[in-house]
Amino acid sequence: MDDWKDYKRVFLTLALPGSFWLLLFFIIPIAFLFVLSFSGKAMVDGETSATAYDYLSTFSNYTSAMSSDYLVLLWRAVWTSVVATFVCLLVAYPLAVAVCFAPPRYRPILLLLLILPFWINLLIRTYAIYTIFRTTGVVNQAFGLVGLGPFEMMNNSGAVIMGLVYVYLPFMVLPLYSTIEKLDRSYLEASLDLGATQATTFRQVTLPLTMPGVITGIILVFIPCLGTFLISDRLGGPNDVTIANTIEQQFLEANNWPFGSALSFILMYATFIALMIRAFVSKRSAGVDA
Amino acid sequence: MTEPIISIRNITKEFAGGVKAVDNVSIDIAQNEFFALLGPSGCGKTTLLRMISGLETPTSGQIVIGGQDMAFTPPNLRPTNMVFQSYAVFPHMTVEQNVGYGLKVTGVPADEIKTRVADALEMVKLSYLAARKPDQMSGGQRQRVALARALVKRPKVLLLDEPLSALDAKLRDDMRMELTRLQETVGITFIIVTHDQDEALSMASRIAVMDKGAVAQIATPAELYEHPNNKFVADFIGKVNLLDAAVISQKGKTVTCDTKAVGKFAIDTDKSASSSATIAIRPEKLKLSAAEPKGARLVKAKAAVKDVAYYGNTSNVIADVGGQELEINVQNDSRTEGSGVERGQKLWVSFDPNDALVLTE
Amino acid sequence: MSAQLKPGMGPLDYARRPWIIALFVLSLIFLYAPIVSLVVFSFNIDKTGVWHGFTWMNYVKAWNNADIFAALSNSLMIAFMSTIFSTIFGAMTALTLWRFRFPFKNAYEGFVALPIVVPEICMGISLLMFFTYTGMMEATRDLPFPLNLSNIIFAHIAFSFPFVTVVVRARLHGFNRQLEEASKDLGATEFQTFLHVIVPFMLPALVAGALLAFTLSLDDFVITFFSSGPNTTTFPVKIYGMVKRGVDMQINAASTVLIVITLAATLIAMKLQGPGKTGH
Questions:
Q1: How far is CA B307 from CA A68, B332, B339, in A?
Q2: Which residues of A touch C27 (CB under 8 A)?
Q3: d(CA B231, CA B357)
Q4: Whole-model pTM?
Q5: Residues of C in contact with B57 (CB under 8 A)
Q6: Which residues of chain B approach chain A closer than 8 Å at the C-beta?
């Protein structure tokens, strides 16, 4: 590696375009969001102005975000994300085990099959779910053939959770796959050899040794679930409102930008905390693979 | 032999695609033996060991352990325990927890676990490390944990998969002695898998040499070395010179044969030879001399020394004998002259036919 | 647990246990049924959930539907432009991070990685405010195609190029500096070395990074939704309106086309990144 001072012109040519772009279209907008989250609407001629703000004047946006109405909403969003994450984990673990314990030449193709849908446009996938599960969709037509239904399977919390699982399952499979694949099989063999049953082996050996993958998977799924906008908006009912949907409402309907900004930052902090937990876990587990 | 503790009967293991990793193998192993499965990599020895432990299942055959066929019994229900090649010491448990694991999961009471773990650690001299995690330990220490962890279960048979291969040379010698000592102390049958003939010869009471999934010979170390059954065993155990021979005649136990290298001679054998055979002779059983050796029975020929490799106590001489290269092991019994053999010398090579062996396959 | 093992099946052959195989198959059905059904029904002659016969009509109609055509061409134009700039900026940033020691380097690395981790909605609304306050929303609204898309393109570059940086940097990490020294030892200048040694080495990562940027751009809804003016519609924004309101087989047809494009791009990218590096 060279010191930048020895090649100032090369360094600046390479570093500036990206830095400039990020500064202009990312940092400045986010910084503005930050300022706005501490601002209130200005009073002009004794009336609340629609467009002018008293910048950095108040904490009230954060305090009202912590009021009971929004805490209920926050709790619902967190709960939905928790359930979706848990379902993902429950399904993905055996899937990852199946891939890892399949003959080596089949592993890449099996893994690819599980994660390929992830590359298809999120909206197309959401739309696809909607079309087959809607009241007149294929699934209900099939129920109709055996004299059942039609069932209302969309526009409720169940649909949101199903959508989240559908979309984020690959995020859970990948980290689990990579830790289980690295897991030395002789640990499991030793456990069985020493008299443990399959279930005990899973509890005492497999699960503890693949914990880093489990935690990474949980965080990789939980974060986007928490910030989900589309799936709750399109597949959920009127009560299935996430933080992201509320943020959108504040900006596009309620026209309360400072409050929306404060909610955005709360969501960002939650994300960063989750990422820090993940970094902490992966650092601690670095020595375990030995 | 007394009632065997393990009886492997006609075990065959076929992998997908029809490859037979183990092909119709039968072995009886007695109580208290130190038994070695020896062979080159891919000969099926590890697969056989894993079938004894239950980590793999045979395609057909029986594995009778303590009088009961356990070929398809899950590993956790077998009275065998294994020391893994990679040791497989659980990284998330302390030494004490590792050793106690097998007792805990089978419901042994806590106070009994405590004393048995303490005894086991004492036995492998690791008591002072009881609270350590494996990542703070050397390879040798981890291996002792693996040993203690298996022995604490008091298995009928202890299985060791290449236990010394991951240790450095010095530690390996110590561990070899220690394993022999341990086996004598605990009085448990040991079955060890190894590709290292020195390891097998020095530790085991009996050895099964395996080749391409089948047993080539089962015998004591000395028998294997001095009376190999076939070319594979002769060649795999120690060094050997193989001379192609045409059989001229056989009278009773005496065969007269003709070799390109050393000419015609008579040799005793139990085997009935067909028209051709192979004569095997170990390098240390060939003698070199400047003058023509005397002795009526001796087989002798002229040798031209092509190369001398010096090993300190001995030297290996490669000599051209009648158009074939033979290896001869010479003692360096003189400090000033060494073996006294130099490249380019013309010498006599000789051997007593009683020291050679007729191999028919 | 079962008391006996089956011949030839070890205790760790989990991939051959019936319940795991069943779960695997069910999961694949769950993952693929919606997509397969979307593709299949794009060839249906009516828009019910029942198969009534094969037709290409939906594709023809979608092609002739000005709305859908505009949305698709907007999406592809945005993805194309964003890919070019993201690849250039991403590669340059990766080279900076790989080649130089400079003050606050760790902070800078974190700064470049931020757009990858910040929730889309936050980036989306911050850009909405930014474009509104700076007047860019107004200014670009009535410009001719493709300049009317510039806000969206700017936004897409901002969230795509950090991904390219990650991909290219991972590749550069495996570069053997001795190749560079050998090149200079043989008389090449610094620039010739860059052109003939480093760029060819980077090439697979550049292509993979570009395809990733392309997919990310085509895939994006949230940021596009907020940074676009009311008159611009991209394909995801168009479908967004469709879900809930109804189902249109022309959308199925256009989606099928897009799925084929994305999957082709993805599979090429995976091939280039080599085995075992699937996903990001």
A1: 93, 16, 13
A2: 91, 95, 114, 169
A3: 10
A4: 0.85
A5: 5-10
A6: 16, 53-55, 74-77, 80-82, 84-86, 88, 90-92, 101-102, 105-106, 134-135, 146, 149-150, 153
SS3 B272: coil
CB spacing of A174 vs C279 below 8 angstroms: yes
Residue of C nearest to A225 (CA): C119
Give the model confidence (pLDDT) of B78-117 as tens digits. Answer: 999 999 999 999 999 999 999 999 999 999 999 999 999 9
β-pairing verdict for B68-69 and B357-359: unpaired
pLDDT tens readout for residues C97-149: 999 999 999 999 999 999 988 999 999 999 999 998 888 888 887 777 788 88
Buried b (16+ CB within 10 A) or exposed e, C20-54: beebbeebeeebeebbebbbebbbbeebebeeeee
Judge whether A191 is closer than 8 Å to chain B, CB to CB. yes
Region C168-186 average pLDDT: 89
From the CB of residue C104, how many other CB atoms can be counted at a distance below 10 Å? 9
What b/e sequence results for C233-267 when a residue is b if at least 16 CB atoms lie within 10 Å of its CB, and e otherwise? bbbbbbbbebbeeebbbbbbbbbbebbebbbebbe
Distances (CA, A) of B191 to A38, B215, C228: 74, 15, 73
C-alpha C262/C-alpha C72 separation (Å) is 13
Q: How are strands ordered across the β-sheet holding B357-359?
A: B263-268, B254-259, B241-251, B276-281, B357-359
Closest CA to A229 of A261, A264, A195, A259: A264
Element spanning A82, H or E:
helix A68-100
pLDDT digits (tens, 9 = 90+) for B291-310: 888 888 889 899 999 999 88
ipTM of this complex: 0.85
